[in-house]
Amino acid sequence: MTKSRIILFLTLLAAAVSGCDPVETPPSPRPDPAPTVVKSPVEILAEESVAPTVSPPAETTPDIASGTSEFDRSPAVDSFLEKFDMLSEQGFVPTLRRGSTGIGYTLETMLGIEENNSPGGDYMGMELKAFRDDDLTMNDSEKMNLFLKEPKWTDGLKSADRVRNYGYVDDNGRTALYSTVTIDMSSHKFAFEVEGDSSKVWLTFDGSRIAFWTREILAKRLKEKHTETVFVSAHSRGKGKAEEFHYYGVTWCREPSVDEFIKLLRKGDVMLELRMHLKESGAVRNHGSCFRIKQNRIRDLFRYAIQVRP
């Protein structure tokens, strides 16, 4: 028996005698886990990368010529400008109607638009207004129609009795009610009165409330008639039937504001025309209650006024 076998035999014999298991080599100790590091909120925020704050872009005036705003998507103004440019290139054109309305009538006729009293706009739902040179900025005596809207009468009178009660005998011998109403009482004793919260505009006669328009009704009519409005400037020369126009400027306005409408009414820049009389039969002839505005204040009605020509 070799020496190594003798040693193994003696080792096994000693273990059997003592009742113990053979000695095993102990396993290598595992490394302690890394300690958990607890950080304060201040440390966490300091280590996090904070995304830079992006400021919203500054609001700019829409420019349809640049093709970068929502306004260049209006098919009405695009179509109008195409026709307008061809008309403007012709230079001076003769009026087709003498008088103050000739400039608008000539423009619409040259553009192929039939004269109308539609509750909507003149051209693809867009209202057109034409003016001689400085009418919009210099002349506050000229007025333009905004829209027709009858009030809700609260006086309890029938139409014919209303004309008799508030009217007068005109030069034609008719019982008539043709009167301009502003915030100040007129010679016919009519005036506007605005509710404190601007929820209603009242029509008064000699200080008594007789009819009203709600804020919502006025806003609706403004939107129906003037959602988009184009103001055309023209040089003029000559007078009467010899007058000529060169249409050269276009300002496109959008988003009328009923708040601005009521502000202008309070200032006397918006007025109402009552237009009715009794016929021989005793029936009422009503041409419609028409809200009007001073020409040089019309742009104040709109949120956007964009000069697109020249």
Automatic annotation (TrEMBL):
It comes from the Bacteria. Residues 50-72 are annotated as: Disordered. Keywords: Signal. Residues 81-302 form the MvaI/BcnI restriction endonuclease domain. The keyword Signal applies. InterPro entries: MvaI_BcnI, MvaI_BcnI_cat, MvaI_BcnI_rec. Residues 1-19 form the signal peptide. Gene3D superfamilies: MvaI/BcnI restriction endonuclease, catalytic domain (3.40.210.20), MvaI/BcnI restriction endonuclease, recognition domain (3.30.70.3570). CDD domains: PDDEXK_nuclease (cd22347). This is MvaI/BcnI restriction endonuclease domain-containing protein. It comes from Mariniblastus fucicola. The lineage of its organism: Bacteria, Pseudomonadati, Planctomycetota, Planctomycetia, Pirellulales.
